[in-house]
Write a structure and sequence with these properties.
- This is Leucine-rich repeat-containing N-terminal plant-type domain-containing protein.
- With 305 residues, this protein is α/β, with parallel strands linked by helices.
- The chain has a domain of 121 residues.
- The protein contains four helices and 13 strands.
Length: 305
Amino acid sequence: MQSVAVKPKASSTDTENPAVVDKPAATSQNSSHFASLRAIRKWKHVVTIVLFVIWGTIILFLHGLAAQRAKHYEVVGCRAVTRPWFSNGKEPCSSLVYDCHARNTTSPDDSSFDKLDVVALATLAIAHCPELDMPRDFQRLENLMMLHLYNSTIVKWDAESSVSDTAHTRMLSVLVGKTQMTEFPEGLLQPLPASLLSVQFSETNLTKLPDDLYMRWHAMAMIAFENGDLTEIPYQMFFSPVYTLSFAGNKIETLPTLAMMPPGMTIPELNLKNNPLRELPAALMAPDPFVMSINAQNTSLSAMP
C-alpha cells in the first residue's frame, strides 16, 4: 500500500498576507542611505568654508599689495588716490588739481599726464596757470567727467586739444572760472560729448559770444555766462536747446534781441539777476509767453512786460 502525502490547505491568514519583508535588512539599507547623505552634506559644507577662506585670503592679499603700491605714489595735486588690485604701472588718481603755481610752471604740457592712469582719472582742475596752453595729451583722458579751469589765462586751446565727443564720452560738466582769454576757446567749439550736461563760465573777460553756439552745442541742462562783462546777447543764443540759460551778474541793460525771437520758441528758465537791466521787450510775454520762468532779481527793472 502506497502512502500519499497530503498538502495542508492554505489558511485565510496566509492568502491575505503575502510574504513579509525582512525588516532588519530594510532598516539597514535606510540607515546606510541616510549616512551617505549626511557625509555628502558634511563635505559640501567643508568645501564651501574652504572656498570662502581661499577667496578671502586672495582678496586680503590683493588689497595688501594695492595698499603697499599706494605708499609709493607721488601724484602732486591728487585729491583722491585709488587702489586698484591690478596695476598697469601708472599712478591711479581719480581727482587731480594741476596747480601751475605749486609746480612752478606756466601751463601743463604733453608730458604732464604721462604718469597718470588715464582710466582712473575722473575730474581734472587746472588752476593758477598764467599762460595756459591746453596740451593735446588732454584728449587721452578718456574717462574724464568734469573739467574745471580756474584763475588762469588761456593763450591757446585749439581743436587738437578740445573737449571732444569721441575722446571724452563720459564728460558731464565744464566750468571756466576767474579766467582770462582773448577770444572764445576753440576747444569748446568742436562737437561736444553727448553726455555733457552743463557748460558754465564765471568771472571771465568775455565781452561777446559766438553767434553760432546754438548750432555747435547740443541740448543741455544748463548754459551759464555769469559775473562777467557781457553787455549784449546775440539773439541766436536764445535758440539754444537748453533748460536753464543764465546771464546773471553781467552788464546787460537792455535785451532787444529777445524781441527778435520767432514764434514757437520757448525758454524754460532765463536768469538775468544782478544786471543793471532797465527794460525788457514788451513782446516778451505776448501773445504767448515763450519764457516760462525769468529771474530778474537785483536789477533796475521797474515793471515786467
